[in-house]
Structure formats: structure tokens, C-alpha cells
Amino acid sequence: MGPVPSGPPRAHPYTHPAAGWGAAKGVLEVLLKEKELVAGTEAVFRMNQADGGFDCPGCAWPDDETVKMDICENGMKHVAWEMTHKRTTREFFAKHTVSELYEWNDHDLEAEGRLTEPMVYDPATDHYVPISWADAFKLFGDTVRSLDSPHQASYYTSGRLSNEATFLYQLMVRELGTNNMPDCSNMCHEASGRALKASIGTGVGTCDLKDWQTTEALFVMGVNVATNAPRMLTYLAEAYRRGAKIVHVNPLIEAGATETIIPHEIIDMITMRATPTSNLNLQVRIGGDMALLRGMAKAVLEWSATDPKAIDPEFIERYTQGFEEYKRLCQDTSWDDIEAQSGLSRADIIKAAQIYRDADRSIISWCLGVTQHEHGVSTIREIVNLLLLRGNLGREGAGPSPVRGHSNVQGNRTCGIDNHPSEAFLDRLDEACGITSPREAGLDTIGTIQAMSRGDVKVFVGMGGNFALASPDNMFTYDALRRCELTVQVSTKLNRSHLVHGKKALILPCLGRTEKDQQKAGAQSVSVEDSMSMVHLSRGSKRPASKQLLSEPAIVSGLARAALPDSETPWEWYIEDYDRIRDTMSKALYGFEDFNRRVRGPMGFRIRQPARELVFLTPSGRAEFCVDELPDVLLEPGFISLGTMRSHDQWNTSIYSDNDRYRGIRNLRTLVFMNKDDMRERGLEEFSPVNITTTAKDGSKRSVYNFLAVAYDVPRSCALGYMPELTPLIGLCDYSLQSDQPLMKQLKAEIVAAV
Ligand SMILES: Nc1nc2c(c(=O)[nH]1)N[C@H]1C(S)=C(S)[C@@H](COP(=O)(O)OP(=O)(O)OC[C@H]3O[C@@H](n4cnc5c(=O)[nH]c(N)nc54)[C@H](O)[C@@H]3O)O[C@H]1N2
Ligand SMILES: Nc1nc2c(c(=O)[nH]1)N[C@H]1C(S)=C(S)[C@@H](COP(=O)(O)OP(=O)(O)OC[C@H]3O[C@@H](n4cnc5c(=O)[nH]c(N)nc54)[C@H](O)[C@@H]3O)O[C@H]1N2
Ligand SMILES: [Mo]
């Protein structure tokens, strides 16, 4: 899926600090490659600034008012990838059939550059051919109106979509009469939302940057910081310097869990002075996080018998529910089980528990290493259990802090992308917009794929993203998409989802974050919400990649007018001036009161979180301890727990190169990182070709062939490799019963030498 390698594969340990000059060089290389040195450099200064500029589309880490150049290598790569001078034109589509493009690798598809005009699939010639915007909207409108039921269409959202576009999109979908709204969150942080909602009544984290700057202990679980949330490195280094303790929990010791040089700290760059980013690394086995957390809680509770300060009885008494039962559960969980399931020694777990006990304020942070598991919800609820024991909630420097993925994935949910919306949300939306929303729950990602496969969903709309390649069980998903009457993809670049299409298919090209969005009332801004619930404006300034591009709100408005000719929603009027959309949002959405004024403050505004104020919207009105038993994550002998993850040079399904600098890999993506003893047992040497077979929950088997084994410091019987290369191994039935999230980190695999 990456580019054709430019040389033989290499694997050398990475021995430098994270970020620093390696990152600076990485930025320069990518700007040179995209021929965007001047414009790109200028863009850096416009990114993540309090006084305007655009929000970096790279990740959802919050912006910091005090950091003047709050950028990172991967954010820059991402921006340059969008700002490329290359164009995918009608001539390009005339030259290549869709079948031919299907054979290209995913890197090369996107490397053709920005899409320039709407295209429609012509089955007679197997080419995409130009279509006017009006005809494209009409094709969508006619097809949707010819369906027997609105539930025969499903509307996907990728987490890049702005709040304003999101709001209009969900309004259109609900006016059409369905809640079929799968989104990338279904594969990402669904477990976090569900767990936090159940435990503390608010489905998002409670921390902000100030908390990160004042905490005394930070636990970072299942995040590859230096690659996927690089701006977090600044806060790790700063925390370390002021004496806070940092514990990383990850089967791999990632570069961000060692030391770093922060690029905007010029003196450190010049003197090459690195700052450690970790006090303790716990190499948990895949899926073993909950056992570790239970062990920490058990230790803290044991100490509380003699040390009254080990827990916070007043907090527990006043704000929580279910403590006694949880205490008993911890007592009843044996250390043997905890050690076996976590893959960690009791002594190591005690070390983490001591750090937790000795800190007055602790933050526990997590990402996909925790969520994409069968027991993701239980594990995150265990995170909250542990925090509650010492009252680490509702006060400065403490709390749960999930690291979200896409730059506006949190905002998408806040603004209504939800396939099972609450009654309260719909009531308010209906009142503000004069519509009657459907009340029955809609389809999520897995449900949509199943329904397309059965023929129950006939129209698929992808608002951004790359659904075909991001979803599990690619072959099954491809087949399901191909059964559709119509597939519509709103995109910036050519990708797999355009080539795996319905009988009719549209590619609708849109403006990117960096580009100027000119409407009747002038240049428009949109807003996004980061991982810490801050909502702020983003305004692009670059000339659009093509005159024919429309903004995402304008595309939604066009689709809506065609599909809902009798709608009383002022779709066109909204697009003339996005302040009008925001005025409606301020009436329809909780926390967005006085939206237009508040969002124009220097760093925007923070959405109020009841749990932060110790108001718990749970059935008991208190924070609820969860008493789930430890899951058994150990596999029978011979099987390996296999996880899929990102390399340093990719952004989800967008692959920039075949390198993974921090893991020391060059020219190779079809690999599997293995423990050397597991390799020896299987007669494997470095770069031995292997076949990997997974067994799905329903017993079906899937294989990939001739991947190369790479010896790596990873726990026994655990292995990891890259998405999307390993995605064909995830069966559609392999999703968590707690979160409906695909098990992207926890496959049951056999790895054998390829002969
Ligand atoms: N540059 C860049 N930035 C990105 C993205 C990108 O692709 N590129 N993607 C964005 C998106 S959408 C998201 S959701 C985030 C993803 O950010 P991450 O969650 O960092 O994503 P992954 O690469 O999947 O890495 C998962 C990490 O979890 C670890 N892990 C695997 N299994 C376990 C386990 O059982 N327990 C624990 N504790 N750890 C485990 C892996 O070793 C790895 O370090 O990043 C966002 N930011
Ligand atoms: N095996 C495996 N699979 C995974 C994961 C995993 O860890 N393992 N992670 C999952 C996760 S966390 C996520 S979030 C999903 C990601 O799933 P998606 O969000 O669906 O996928 P992306 O790769 O982020 O989408 C890339 C495409 O977005 C389009 N794009 C880029 N910018 C814009 C824009 O501004 N507007 C519009 N309209 N389009 C734009 C481009 O055409 C580009 O090709 O993948 C999931 N899939
Ligand atoms: Mo994600």
C-alpha cells in the first residue's frame, strides 16, 4: 500500500531523542518533495495560532496560547500533503480506467495530488468523467428520493469535518429521516465515549492543558506519542522538568517514551539537549491494561488499611457509588491473575501504584492501545475506578484524558454525528430547526457494512475519509460497497474508496483546511473542537487547489437541496455566511450558547463539562465504580496476539513513505514486529518471510502472505504490524461486544515461515 520501495529493507534501532533535528529534517524533506517550501514555511506560522490561521488537521491535541510555533513534523507533513502543487485532473481520469487505478498502490493514488472537479463513474468505459455540480447533486437527490425508505442510505463522517459542515450534514440526514450515521469514531474512541458516559456521565475527558501543566503523575497508555500526538511531547518534557512522574504503558517502548528535544525550544535544538519523557515504562502484554490497572487499585487499597492517605474516603463517600463492591472485587482478584493477564511482575505494578499513591494529582491518558480491544470499555472504566479512589477528578491537574485522533472527531459527535442520539439532543435540534427527527437508532460502521452486504443499504455517502480501506475485513467491505446503487465520496485526494464503488459513483472534491473559503458574505471560518473540549475557529488562506472546489458546508447544502426539495431549512442562506449556521447551532446544541461571540475569543471557548464540576449525569447522580471481572486475554499455546498500528510516515490510510524512523525501519511496510524468542521457536530470522493467519470469532480464517518478520522488543506471544496492510486479517465479526469497535489491536494470529 506504500510506494514501491527505493531500496532493500532495513531495521536498525533508533537511538536519538524523539522530535529534535530528525523531525526538522523530516519536515524539510517533505516540503521539498511537495515543492511547497515557501508556501509551506509560511503555512507553519499560520497554524494553531490564537489570532486566526488554520487548525492543524494533523491531530486533535489542543493549541497552547503560550507556544509561538506550536507545530510538529507530522502536522507539517500532513499540511504539505494537502497543499501539494500536484493535481488529479480530468485528463488523468481519461488516461486511466478505474480497473487500472485499482491496481495502483495507495500511496501513488494520493500522490497524484488534489482532486479538481466533480467526477461521475461511467460504467460503459470504466472511467470517471467530469460532471457539473448541479448534475452531481441531482444524481444524488434523484437516487435518494427513489429509495423505498430513508434507512436505505448511510452517511459516513471522517473526523476532519468542521463543526459547521457537521451540523448541516446531520441536519440533512435527520431531515431525510434516518440516523444511519457511521463515523470514524466507531473504529477509534467509541469505547472511550461509552465508558466515560457510564462512569461519570460525560462522554469526553475532563482535563485541559492547564491540568497537564500542573499534574504530578501522568500515565500514558497505548499512545505512540512522538508519531501520533507529537505536540504532547512538549508537555511530557515540561512535566518531567518540574518533577512530575511519567509512566508509559505500552507493549513497545516507543520513541516518545524515552527522551525528546522540542523543536520550538531553540536553545535545546542548538545544544542538542534532550529531556527525558519517562520515569517508568511498563511493557504490558496486548490487552493486559485492565489487569495492570486492577493491580494498581488492589495495591492502593491494600495500603489504605494502614495508610489513611492512600485513598480519599471523603471523595468516595460524597461523589461515588459502588465503592465497597469494587473494593471486594479488587481483593478477590488474585495477584497471580493480575500478573498473568498483564504480563507484568507484581513488583513493577507496585512501582506504578506507588507513583500513583505518592502524587496529589494524577492524569491517566490513553488512545487506541486501550480502546480497540474487546474489553476497551471495561478497561477505560477501570481507569476511572483508579482515579476515583484518590479523588482524581474535578480538580486541577487530575482526571481522565483520552487522546483523540482526527482533528475534529470530538466536535463531530458534539455537533450531532451519532447513530443513537439521545432524546434530549433530538428534542432540542427539532425545536431549533423546525424538523421532526427520526427516533429509532441508526447504523454504525459495522452495521452499515453488514446492511450494504445484505442489500438493505443502497446509497453510501462518505463525508471525507477512506471508508473502504479504513474499515475492517477489506474484501468483505469492498464487496458490500460494490453492491450499492450509488456511492458518493467527498474528498480532497484520490483514494481506494473511489475505486471500490457502487453501480453509480460520484467523487465530489472539496476545499482543504488550509484553503480560503470565500462565500457571499466574504471569507469564512469554520470551527473545530480539540481533545480537551476547546472550540476555536480555523480559517484557511491559501488559494484553492482548483476553482471548481466547493466547501464541505456548500456540498452538504447542494446535496440537501437536491434530496429535500420541499425542505424549509434555508440551505443556501446558511452558506452565504457561516455565522448563520453558528446562530442556529447555538440554539440547537448544548454548550454552544452565544457561539459566534465566544468562538471569536483568543483561543475560542471550552464546552462545559459537568463531570469536571463534579456534577455526574449518571443514573445515581454520582460517579459510578464499575465492577467488571478481568477478561482472559491469554491465547492457547502457538497463537499470537496481533495488533495493527501506524508507522511514523502515514496518516491513517494516507501513506507518505515506507519508512518508520522512530522504530528504525526503512523501505518496508509489510512487516511484523515479533519477540525474538517467538521467532526462534518458529525458525525465523530477521526478515524471514512469514504468512499470518487469523482466526475470527466465527471461526473463519484470513491470511496475508510473505510479510517480513522483524525482531523487536515486544512481550512474548505479542506482535504488531501496520494498518492498513494487516487490515484484511480483521473479520467483520471481530468487533467488541462492549463498544462495537473492530478489534484492531487484538487479533488471534498464527505466524509461520512462508515456504
Ligand atoms: N502522524 C499521525 N498522527 C495521527 C494519526 C496518523 O495516522 N498519523 N492518526 C490519528 C488518529 S485517527 C488516531 S485515532 C490517533 C492514533 O494514535 P495511536 O493510538 O498512537 O495509534 P496507533 O499507531 O494505532 O498506536 C497504538 C499504540 O498502542 C500500542 N498498543 C498496542 N496494543 C496495546 C495494548 O494492548 N495496550 C497498550 N497499552 N498499548 C498498546 C502500540 O504499541 C502503539 O504505540 O492518532 C492520530 N494522529
Ligand atoms: N487496521 C486498522 N484499521 C484502522 C485503525 C487501526 O488502528 N487499525 N484505525 C481506525 C481509526 S482510529 C480511524 S480514525 C479510521 C480512519 O478512517 P478515515 O477517517 O475514513 O480515513 P483517513 O485515512 O483518515 O482518510 C483519508 C482521506 O481523507 C480525505 N481527506 C483528507 N482531508 C480531507 C478534508 O479536509 N475533507 C474531506 N472531505 N476529505 C479529506 C482524503 O481524500 C484522504 O484520502 O481508520 C480506522 N482503521
Ligand atoms: Mo482515529
From TrEMBL:
CDD domains xrefs: MopB_ydeP (cd02767)
Iron-sulfur recorded as keyword: yes
Pfam families: Molybdopterin
Annotated signal peptide: none
Name recorded for this polypeptide: FdhF/YdeP family oxidoreductase
Database matches in InterPro entries: Asp_de-COase-like_dom_sf, Mopterin_OxRdtase, Mopterin_OxRdtse_a_bac, Prok_molybdopt-oxidoreductase, YdeP_MopB
SUPFAM superfamilies: ADC-like, Formate dehydrogenase/DMSO reductase, domains 1-3
Highest classification ranks of the organism: Bacteria, Bacillati, Actinomycetota, Actinomycetes, Kitasatosporales
